[in-house]
Amino acid sequence: MKSPFCIDRSILVLNNNPTYLDFWEYSSRIWKNNFGILPTLFFVGEPPKSLNKQFGEVYVIPQIDDVVVNPSRDWSVTWALFWGASQFTNDICITHGIDQVPLSDNFFRGVEKFDYNKDYVIGLADAYNRSDWFVSSHHVAKGSTFKKALSINEDWKKEVTK
Q1: Residue 87 burial (CB < 10 Å; 0-12/13-18/19+)?
Q2: pTM here?
Q3: Alpha-carbon distance 42 to 50, whole Å?
Q4: CA torsion, points 144, 150, 154, 155, in degrees to nearest 10?
């Protein structure tokens, strides 16, 4: 099913944190069936064999132990959202929390007006009422724009250790 919206992929991330491990199956089904947007998971570390790949794409990237400060709240997993989006040069991607569920298509319709050959949209830019802090979800851009705007290195290990 092709997305009826300008967004091609929802980029989601996960590791073996038991708090979030079961969200992928539900989240991927909602993105694909309710919105026609391809759920794309970047799993940091070794995924369980039972990880369901029925509703979306799954990419496995290594956990880089040198950067893990707190295993239960590993910041590198969050950064994998942006690195993951940058891997799809011509696709318009949205970053999203695996534990967040869109309740309607209002946001997707609202971002249709932007020119994704040049625009990078941060949908919740004012969430912290600060101009220098942004939530990690609801960033929308082409993969090439993620790469350029955030100076993302093609190599995951080099990116996450810089």
Answers
A1: buried
A2: 0.91
A3: 16
A4: -160
